Amino acid sequence: MVIQEDIIILKILERLVKLNKFDCKAIRSLDDLTIEDQQQNFDVIITDILFEGIAPLEFVVQVQEVILHKNLIVVTNMGQDKIKKEIFALSGIAGFYAVPLDLDEIEAIIQTY
């Protein structure tokens, strides 16, 4: 699953996941989740952390509580070291990447699933 408000990054990440032979659900916010999405166990979620009305760390915690998944990768325009450290302190975080993206690194992580 890819959760990303930026439509260009959303489409790039969705394509990357599909090229690695995974099914991919791409949405722009948690409001777009269906009941079926919440019941499915995703191998990986690739998400931004910048969404209006919610702090970055709170958003990550909310994703971890709402969507069953094995690993979480953060791809964001927010590259602050403090936020990165706080997010990595949570369990289940497989990576944190600031824009501009290194797609090769993200693809390498995806291929391990």
From TrEMBL:
Domain of life where this protein originates:
Bacteria
One GO BP annotation of this record: phosphorelay signal transduction system
Residue ranges of the TM segments: none
Q: Which UniProt keywords apply?
A: Phosphoprotein
What InterPro entries does its record include? CheY-like_superfamily, Sig_transdc_resp-reg_receiver
In this UniProt entry, the residues modified to 4-aspartylphosphate are D48
Where is each Response regulatory domain found? 1-113
Instruction: Output the PROSITE patterns linked to this UniProt entry.
Output: RESPONSE_REGULATORY
The entry's protein name is Response regulatory domain-containing protein
